[in-house]
Amino acid sequence: EIMSGIVEIKSIARESGMRSKVAVYARQQNVDPVGSCVGMKGQRIQKIVDELGGEKIDVVLWDPDMSVYIANALSPAQVVSVDLSEAEKTASVVVPERMLSLAIGKEGQNARLAAKLTGWRIDIRSAHIPDEDVVEGLEEVNDDALLQRATALLRAEDAAASATNGANDLLSDSETVLAEEEAEEA
What we know:
By secondary structure, this protein is α/β, with parallel strands linked by helices. 48% of the residues lie in helices and 22% in strands.
């Protein structure tokens, strides 16, 4: 498909010996460009991976809509939203909290390759638990299930903050005791 021009490689970002990202696009509507490159059961891409000594290769779908393209470039992470600043060529990306480390990648590799692939600076942050203002806004929506879930999330956030504060207090007390013991020994 690539040789015949049906599938086009739009961009490649590579960290030699580690990982590559390749953005592909199909010139014909009925062709899956990613599937064409990966092959049945991954056979096509596996041959290239073997040739490169086990280097991982992510094949992503190129899209003329930069928001969609940036979201695709951050795969395998799922993206909630992408806000673009055309003037600065910066994308502010929100991912679910559980996907944050996946979006960034080991030592920032996934985010770095996505930025090279797209040519945009990508700032990644996680989706936050709703605050009191959001819950008050949800009350107006009159969706009891959504309101209950948001309230439960707020309680969980408060409990986590209390536990963290308690642990920090215990740590601080332990450090004080250790410092006092060291002073007595000296």
